[in-house]
Each structure stands twice: as structure tokens, then as C-alpha cells.
Design goal:
This protein is mainly alpha-helical and 141 residues long. The chain has one domain. The chain is built from 6 helices and no strands. Helix 1 packs antiparallel against helix 3 and helix 2 crosses helix 3. The two termini are 33 Å apart.
Length: 141
């Protein structure tokens, strides 16, 4: 079962890690500016750094609760600003944006679960907790 949690972390974090480099391209910045994102030249690359840091944190299980909160900080404004399907007039484009909006909501739900439960076994966090427990036993002896 512990490999199942690791597989989940790998699969979940992949979209953030693989998508982060795009945030440093003119195409992403231009699209965000077209969608009305203020200071897109600064905020889009910053969001890429936040997504990358959160994704790596969850992947490695290193301070995964903090990493999951970084993903929440990334997902909430991106979901509302970029995938605002209710403001799109073309029915096909609105449907695509609604699907992307719902995808982001599901990823937000997963980030909230990780922020509560942590990385699980086979993670740096689990190893650190075990080392901490072992040190506490040694101090008590």
C-alpha cells in the first residue's frame, strides 16, 4: 500500500512540475495578459516558481504539507482568473474552460488532502518523523 501513496504523489505532482517551464514563456505571459491578469510579466513566472516548488515538495514528500499549501496558493487564483468559463461567450471555448476549471478544482481538493494528511510513507517527511521519534526515545533512555 505504501507504494500506492508514492505513485499518487508522482502522478499528482507531474502536472505542476511539467507545466512550470511554460510559465517562463512569452506565450503563457501573453495569454494571461489577454485574460486580464495584472502584471502578467511578473505574476506568471512567479506562479511557475510556486507550482514547481509545490510540485517538487509533494513529489519528494519533503515538507509536503507546505508544498500542498503552495499548490493551493497557485491553484486558486489561476483557476479563477484563467478558467473563468462563465465569462466566455463562445460555447465551445466556454465548455473547454469549464472542464479546465473542474480539473483545477479536483487538483485543489487533492492539495487540501495532502495539506492535512501529509506525504505518507516512502517520503522524506516520514523518514524525518521516524528519525525524530528515534531521537526522542534515545533522549528518554
Amino acid at each position: 500500500m505504501r507504494y500506492l501513496v508514492l505513485a499518487g504523489r508522482v502522478l499528482y505532482s507531474a502536472i505542476f512540475i511539467m507545466g512550470s517551464p511554460g510559465h517562463f514563456t512569452q506565450q503563457y505571459v501573453g495569454y494571461a495578459a489577454q485574460q486580464g491578469v495584472p502584471a502578467a510579466r511578473v505574476l506568471v513566472p512567479l506562479s511557475g516558481l510556486i507550482a514547481l516548488a509545490g510540485g517538487l515538495s509533494v513529489l519528494l514528500g519533503y515538507r509536503a504539507k507546505v508544498g500542498a499549501w503552495l499548490l493551493v496558493v497557485f491553484l486558486v487564483p489561476v483557476t479563477l482568473a484563467i478558467h473563468n468559463f462563465w465569462a466566455v461567450h463562445d460555447p465551445m471555448a466556454a465548455q473547454i474552460q469549464q472542464v479546465m476549471f473542474m480539473k483545477n478544482l479536483s487538483m485543489l481538493g487533492a492539495a487540501l488532502l495532502i495539506s492535512y494528511f501529509g506525504a505518507g510513507p516512502l517520503s522524506f517527511d516520514a523518514r524525518r518523523a521516524k528519525d525524530f521519534d528515534r531521537a526522542a526515545v534515545d533522549r528518554a533512555a
